[in-house]
Amino acid sequence: MVNALVLFTVERKKVNAVAEKLVTMQGVSEVYSVAGRYDLATIVRASDNEQLATLVTDKMLKLKGIKKSETLFAFKVYSDHDLETMFSIGMDD
Length: 93
Description:
- This protein is of the alpha+beta class.
- The protein has a single domain (2-87), classed as Lrp/AsnC effector binding domain/regulation of amino acid metabolism (RAM) domain (Alpha-Beta Plaits, 2-Layer Sandwich), CATH 3.30.70.920.
- It is 29% helix and 33% strand.
- The chain contains three helices and four strands; from the N terminus they run βαββαβα.
- It has helices at residues 15-22, 49-59, 80-87, and strands spanning 2-10, 28-33, 40-46, 66-74.
- It has a four-stranded antiparallel β-sheet.
- The longest helix is centred in the middle third of the chain and has 11 residues, at 49-59.
- It is globular, with a radius of gyration of 16 Å.
């Protein structure tokens, strides 16, 4: 499994439309509207690098309204949810 964050700068009037299209793509788990240098942050989970590359270059970057993007590969996930699961093994509720 390959996890990545794909950050987008989008034309101002097209942020909502682009976000709605991104979230329907296979491999996209979440799309966040964010403040700062980027307009959208997308969480992607792909089976391998090839699937990720196809999703980003053949699908995402062809959406009208996207001005630029940056893809960040995730090496390791740190999550409170993961810690809770790990420490609750064998405990009865």
